[in-house]
Amino acid sequence: MNNPTATPAVAEHGAAIVALEAEHDVIDLELGTLKSAILSGADGALIIYVLDRSITFCEEHFAHEEGFLRDHGYGQVDDHAALHRELLDRFRCARDRAAGDSMPLAALDAFELLQEFKEHVELYDRPAYMEVEKRSPRTLRTNEAFAVHTAVL
Ligand SMILES: [Fe+2]
Ligand SMILES: [Fe+2]
Questions:
Q1: What is the CATH number of domain 8-152?
Q2: pLDDT at 139 over 50
Q3: Residue 149 scores a pLDDT above 80
Q4: Which of the chain's termini has less CB crowding within 10 Å, N or C?
Q5: Higher-confidence position of 138 and 32
Q6: Which ligand has the nearest atom to the CA of 23?
Q7: How far, in Å, from the CA of 27 to the mean position of ligand 1?
Q8: Which ligand is the nearest neighbour of the Cα of 17?
Q9: How far is the CA of 66 from the centre of ligand 1 (A)?
Q10: What is the pLDDT of residues 12-25, one digit of tens each?
């Protein structure tokens, strides 16, 4: 963020959200790679490798996001974390099916998950980020008002 008018706390939120959105882009690319691997008839080992990598990225991203939301007092962080766990469980299930003898089904699961991940970002992540951004200026104004009030006393 290079906005000279942003207060430090708002700029910090902005930077964290840009970083989280960059992680969304990485996961999106990962899932796109998975789709290409499946469509091009890549062997099971490669597909499992990409799935494992996607799962690792998701675990890291979800941890970052939950930490961010918790640190900024987002009220529904536990519900949000439960949605993450559900997505991860389904990812791991697809990975296990791919490692077994159900590769075509696992591939279908993976396509579905790609779509669900994008829906999760639209339906839950972006509204949560907006909520955090809305709260911050209010918190800052409250702190500033308190500082002024204290200085007057
Ligand atoms: Fe999320
Ligand atoms: Fe996210």
A1: 1.20.120.50
A2: no
A3: no
A4: C
A5: 32
A6: 2
A7: 12
A8: 2
A9: 7
A10: 678 889 999 999 99
Residue type for 41, please?
Answer: G
Cβ pair 140, 148 in contact under 8 A: no
State the pLDDT at residue 67. Answer: 95
> For residues 105 and 116, what is the distance between their CA atoms, to the nearest angstrom?
16
Centroid of ligand 2 to alpha carbon of 118 (angstroms): 9
Looking at this protein, which amino acid is placed at residue 85? R
CA of 45 to the centre of ligand 2 (A): 27
- Quick one: CA torsion of 65, 111, 53, 127, rounded to 10 degrees? -10
What are the C-alpha distances in Å from 51 to residues 36, 118, 144? 12, 16, 48
Domain boundaries, the chain: 8-152
Q: What is the mean pLDDT of residues 131-141?
A: 67
Average pLDDT, the chain: 80
Q: Within its chain, how far is the Cα of 47 from the centroid?
A: 22
